[in-house]
Amino acid sequence: MRICVFCGSSAGNNPVYREAAIELGTALAKAGIGLVYGGAQVGLMGAVADAAMAAGGEVIGVIPRQLVERELAHDGLTELKEVGSMHERKAVMADLSDGFIALPGGVGTFEELFEVWTWGQLGHHQKPCALLNVGGYYDKLVTFLNHATTEGFMKQPYREMLIVASDVESVLAKVEAYEAPKVAKWMGKKREL
Predict the structure, then answer these.
(1) What pLDDT, in 10s, does the model give residues 94-121?
(2) Residue ranges of the domains in the chain?
(3) What phi, psi does 184 have (nearest 5°)?
(4) For a FRET experiment, which of 2, 55, 76, 161 has its CA 20 to 30 Å from that of 145?
């Protein structure tokens, strides 16, 4: 089994984010779960990878060629895959993974998580997608997602597809127990004009 971790190439301002990245990398390795991530040696990306490697885990990095120098590609991984584009990076990471967890990060992290979550809603995969809401980092996003559901732009089963947990033990337990909902997104709907 492999889990893809989306996270920042920065460490953020709160030390709790880096601590969680280290804890997650260590926990994945100790559970015999491989790590797939964005391939950098800096920020939370480097922290999660270094921790998994230090604990004896398999770590596969996937990085676009144009980011190899800018994000300082990690040279101590089990495997580093260089790809041609960000689109290819996401596709390769998704193909290699059995689930997805987002640590704190910026726009790239959000975009990666939202894309794989959308793929799940559309039935392209049955894999769990999760937010590791360390230190309340994603609290306002979760509030907004609940608002989008209340306002009718997201069905409750799709909102529930996104796992939210505040600690590593809980997020891994929820990812392991995940069952994809059986909802037909547009079946039986009349076309609105």
Answers:
(1) 999 999 999 999 999 999 999 999 999 9
(2) 2-176
(3) -85, 115
(4) 2
Q: Which of 165, 174, 171 is nearest to 136 (CA)?
A: 165
Q: Which amino acid does the sequence have at 119?
A: W
Q: How many CB atoms lie within 10 A of CB 8?
A: 24
**CA 2/CA 21 separation, integer angstroms:** 16
CA atoms within 13 A on the CB side of 118: 7
Q: Please report where in the chains the tokens 């990878």 appear, as a residue.
A: 49
Fold of domain 2-176? Rossmann fold (3.40.50)
Q: Name the one residue in this structure whose structure tokens are 């309340």.
A: 136
Q: Can you tell me the distance from the alpha carbon of 73 to that of 147, in angstroms, rounded to the nearest whole number?
A: 38
How far is 160 from 146, CA to CA, in rounded Å? Answer: 10
CA distance 92 to 157: 27
Please choose, from the candidates 102, 59, 105, the residue with its C-alpha nearest in 3D space to the C-alpha of residue 80. 59
109 burial level (CB within 10 Å; 0-12, 13-18, 19+): buried
Looking at this protein, which amino acid is placed at residue 147? H
Partnered with residue 59 across adjacent β-strands are: 35
Q: What is the pTM of this model?
A: 0.92
